[in-house]
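in:
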């Protein structure tokens, strides 16, 4: 699912503008929307408060990164209707290039199954997650994890989520410090722990990282295998923003060129021995 924002509001504007000025500008923005979109905005679920557009934006707008420095709150009408689940079956990402929000499957979604995304960072622990959903989104999560009374299961889940969050950072950090072997071992753990918790890494991104690490430890065969998996995974997304796909394609191309070079070199060595016979 690909959708463009009905409204996109800079976070710096939302934070810095005086309330009456912000409300006036947002209202003017909504009034300028095409009729159907404008009606869609007013039909959204709203919080109970004192100003209607604030009450609509608070539980519906989603934070997106427009440039490296500039974040914004985007209001996407279709996306607003997708419910939360702590073990979601879909993920979303925003393309700063096209301003499109794309929802894509996180795992196989069965026909008739409701599409869900997580409104919280995946690594957030149980108590914080419930509190965040209550405060920011104004509801109690009814998923099996949140309703569980099994303290041990909740604590295990929290540990796994925390570990998943740590591992991604550790893999990238170890890689940047050139501890490639360590990074590869941690990448494997990242996948295993994430899968056990039902929140695995985004595979396209994961394969890409493992491909580059395999190359760094000198395993060209694995580097090519994972680069191909990354390319296939990005292709399957049918992305509206081809930056990741293009990067994966270019990396695979580079490895293939290099692969031929390495093969030639080996042949060279073999020929050398032949000459000596
Ligand atoms: Zn939940």
């Amino acid at each position: 699912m690909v959708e463009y924002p009905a409204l996109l509001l800079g976070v710096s504007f939302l934070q810095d503008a005086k309330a009456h000025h912000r409300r006036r500008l947002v209202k003017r923005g909504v009034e300028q929307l095409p009729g159907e979109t404008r009606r869609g905005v007013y039909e959204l679920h709203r919080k109970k408060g004192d100003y209607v557009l604030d009450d609509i934006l608070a539980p519906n707008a989603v934070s997106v990164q427009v440039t490296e420095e500039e974040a914004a709150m985007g209001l996407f009408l279709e996306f607003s209707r997708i419910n939360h689940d702590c073990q979601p079956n879909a993920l979303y990402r925003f393309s700063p290039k096209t301003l499109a929000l794309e929802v894509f499957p996180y795992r196989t979604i069965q026909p008739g199954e409701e599409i869900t995304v997580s409104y919280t960072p995946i690594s957030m622990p149980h108590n914080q997650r419930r509190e965040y959903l209550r405060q920011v989104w104004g509801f109690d999560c009814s998923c099996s994890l949140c309703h569980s009374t099994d303290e041990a299961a909740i604590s295990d889940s929290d540990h796994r989520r925390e570990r998943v969050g740590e591992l991604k950072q550790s893999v990238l950090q170890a890689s940047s410090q050139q501890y490639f072997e360590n990074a590869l071992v941690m990448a494997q753990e990242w996948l295993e722990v994430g899968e056990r918790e039902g929140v695995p890494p985004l595979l396209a991104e994961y394969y890409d990282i493992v491909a580059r690490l395999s190359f760094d430890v000198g395993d060209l065969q694995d580097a090519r295998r994972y680069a191909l998996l990354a390319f296939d995974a990005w292709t399957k997304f049918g992305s509206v923003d081809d930056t990741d796909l293009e990067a994966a394609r270019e990396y695979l191309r580079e490895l293939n060129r290099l692969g031929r070079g390495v093969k030639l070199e080996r042949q060279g060595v073999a020929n050398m021995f032949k000459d000596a016979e």
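note: Confidence is low (pLDDT under 50) at residues 263-277.
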